[in-house]
UniProtKB/TrEMBL annotation:
Organism: Cuscuta europaea
InterPro entries in the record: Glyco_hydro_28 (IPR000743), Pectin_lyas_fold (IPR012334), Pectin_lyase_fold/virulence (IPR011050)
One example of a Gene Ontology biological process annotation: carbohydrate metabolic process
Protein's name according to its UniProt entry: Polygalacturonase
Lineage: Eukaryota, Viridiplantae, Streptophyta, Embryophyta, Tracheophyta
Principal subcellular localisation of the protein: secreted
Any coiled-coil regions, as ranges: none
Pfam families: Glyco_hydro_28
Protein family: Belongs to the glycosyl hydrolase 28 family.
Amino acid sequence: MEVPVGKTCLVGEITLEGPCGKGFALQVNGEILAPAKGSSQWTGSLQWFNIKGVNGFTLGGTGSFNGNGAAWWTKAEDDDSPNNNLFVDQKTSGTKPTAVRFYGSTQVTVTGIEIKNSPQAHLKFNGCTGVNVNNVKITSPGTSPNTDGIHLQNSKSVTITGTTIAC
């Protein structure tokens, strides 16, 4: 699959679920944009772009995933109650989603892309083995609250090289 240069694709919550044939790839050279907070395309999922149960999958390209996080951050910052938790949007009663998540996958490569403005974590690996992240750029404004760059959970054999994390 490919998102071409110069194209922006508005994509609601999505799960790409294996098994797929080894060597399956998503080439992102344009931009994949999350819908705005409050859009009917948000159903309350904890992940925006979810990839699970794949083996030998590559997510690569020169394009970007834009999590459209500003609306989520504003809600959390506006809540001055003592119980405000920046992981949970108190005013809209929902946990903020992760931008790109791999779950239960093996031999995963993420290369060359940018992931920006996630409501919470930008790139997450949960229950994965044999992960290679290289030349990835992860960004969000300095004023964004607690937006994790790369979150590793129950994963092993992970290599991260040449990657910039500024969030």
